[in-house]
Amino acid sequence: MIDSPLRAIAPSEIASLYRDGAVLLKNVLPQRWLNILEEGLEQANRQPGGMSSNVDGPLRIDQFPSSQSPALARFVAESPIAELVGRVLDSPVRFYMDQMFYKPAGEIEPTPWHQDTCYYNIEGQDLVRAWVSPDPVPREISMEVVRGSHRWNVTYHSWVGRPLEEDPEGAERAIKAMAAGEPVIGVEAHKTWSYANAFRDKSMPAAPDIATYKDSFDILGWDFEPGDVLLFHGHILHGAEGGCHSTQPRRAHASMWAGNDIRYMHRLGQVVPDPEGLYRYKPRSGDLLASFPDIFPIVWQPR
Question: What Pfam families does the entry give (predicted)?
């Protein structure tokens, strides 16, 4: 059963998400869910699965950590997160996937500016991320977004993976998979995955150099406190500053939620595997996620 948030979402907060592409909902998660979140992140950190990778030194990123941690599975299924997303979208919502980001105390490395959309075989507008942490996260190491970039109507290629020309045989297999309507990254990647498995699809444009020309962009950022939830659109450009020292780890959980219009789409530059159970259905580009209700059940819907 889904638990309720501590307060209702204001219409102005919903408007902010649609206008700006992101909104920080202050003080909406009860303390018991922060305790479960912290337990789950520590569980996942102690017991990495096959989809755990270190990036830029000590930064640890896990894909689908709720499949490894019972506490995170409960957080996804029962916390107020699904209702918060559903209220904003005014739509039934389906859980797509989640990630853990674990930056140990010490020097905090920056997160490059990127979109999320290009990493997955999905497309559509009703795609929202929920970013939460059991720790205070000051603005200087918290997530930032380029205001309104979710409405630029462009998908950039990912900043991970290798150029197609560096692995001609692998590139040929990937292109053949695309032509056959098959995912470029197969189900076996759930046990052998790394960011290096992906290809960089240069047919898509590179993201603008926001880090170098940051003053030229309209940047939003926040001081995050436990109990807050940051919601942001799947298409928005986002990143995080670094280069500073933190006396505590920056632990975060990001879940991805799909509304009514989210569809499957094969991508040559796919980085993250499809949810494991989806492979047996051999989905085609254009199939609604709602076509696979046992893989993507409705977690919350308006009454």
Answer: PhyH
For residues 253 and 135, the answer to whether their CB atoms sit within 8 Å is: no
Q: Say what angle helices 31-46 and 70-78 make with each other, to 10 degrees.
A: 140
pLDDT for 136-177, tens place per residue? 998 888 899 999 999 999 999 998 888 889 999 999 999 999
171-185 per-position pLDDT tens digit: 999 999 999 999 999
Q: How far apart are the first and last CA of the chain?
A: 14
Name the nearest CA neighbour of 97 among 33, 141, 51, 146. Answer: 51
Give the number of residues written for the chain: 303
- 11-300 folds as Jelly Rolls (2.60.120)
Q: What is the pTM of this model?
A: 0.94
Closest CA to 80 of 62, 97, 93: 93
How many Cβ atoms from other residues are within 10 Å of residue 11's Cβ? Answer: 8
Q: Which residues sit opposite 95 in a β-bridge?
A: 257
Domain ranges, ordered by start, for the chain: 11-300
Whether the Cβ atoms of residue 178 and residue 184 lie closer than 8 Å to each other: yes
What is the Cα gyration radius of the chain?
A: 18
